[in-house]
Amino acid sequence: MMVDVVKVDSGQLARLTISREARRNALSAGVVEGLIDGIKTLSEDAAVRAIVLTGEGERAFCAGGDLGDQLPDGGMLGMHKARGRFAELILAMRRSPKPLIARVNGHALGGGFGLVLACDLAVAADHATFGTPEVKVGLFPMMISALIQRSLSQKHAMELMLTGDRIDALRARELGVVNEVVAGADLDDAVGALAERVAAHSPAVVGLGRQAYYATEDMSLEQALRTLHSQLTINTLAEDAAEGISAFLEKRDPRWKGQ
């Protein structure tokens, strides 16, 4: 398998791993399909509270698109259609009700950089690097620029895409690409602690809020406020909202039902 799905911590946390260490976990057509299937499957699993996305080994999280991937059936039009599956992967990540955490165990380049940006949270090993080196081989990071422009300032975004230079993990944290940078030996503990903090809350409310956030990111201020007003009302009708308020008033831990 090019993508491994493993559930840990009594099934509340799931790990999605790109298993192509020899190819620096590059994004072949098979990897993209595996990630789409894995995210959709885990998104429908009521027991899962958070999904961790990572790469096999310690060298690379994901080195981007596999330039050696074979031409699919259908010639160049088939290749065009296959590239569109990466867009479906990003959309599947956005539509999932489950929070996604990038466990950046090594280089995150090109499409791999895009995967980090598509996750809600990211923790990086201190030896990880980030960048969009496509311009150096005569390509522009077209598809992931949609994520870059939503995550970085224009000047920083264009510097990365126009130069093809890499940045280290500390610089990535300064730019808001990752939340935390730790020693490689501490990566699993840091990711686990962050996932535990996320999983402690109502999965129903977290899912509702996450999807509302991404649904309104391209709206005008008035459109966003009108939409979020409706979403707030829906939120207040949830059983977990009533439970959370009761628990607060009674000074006890809430017992979430996921409803």
Structure overview:
- It holds the Pfam family ECH_1.
- One of its GO terms (molecular function) is catalytic activity.
- It comes from Lujinxingia vulgaris.
- Belongs to the enoyl-CoA hydratase/isomerase family.
- InterPro entries: ClpP/crotonase-like_dom_sf (IPR029045), Enoyl-CoA_hyd/isom_CS (IPR018376), Enoyl-CoA_hydra/iso (IPR001753), Enoyl-CoA_hydra_C (IPR014748), Enoyl-CoA_Hydratase/Isomerase (IPR051683).
- The strands form 2 sheets. The chain has a 6-stranded mixed sheet, sandwiched between helices. Strands 4-6-8-9 form a 4-stranded mixed sheet.
- Helix 1 packs parallel to helix 2 and helix 8 runs antiparallel to helix 9.
- The protein is of the alpha/beta class.
- Strand 2, helix 1 and strand 3 form a beta-alpha-beta unit.
- 46% of the residues lie in helices and 17% in strands.
- The chain starts with a strand and ends in a 10-residue tail after the last helix.
- The chain has 2 domains: 197 residues, 2-enoyl-CoA Hydratase, Chain A, domain 1, CATH 3.90.226.10; 47 residues.
- It is built from 10 helices and 10 strands.
Task: Describe what is shown at a glance.
InterPro entries: ClpP/crotonase-like_dom_sf, Enoyl-CoA_hyd/isom_CS, Enoyl-CoA_hydra/iso, Enoyl-CoA_hydra_C, Enoyl-CoA_Hydratase/Isomerase. It is built from ten helices and ten strands. It is an alpha/beta fold.
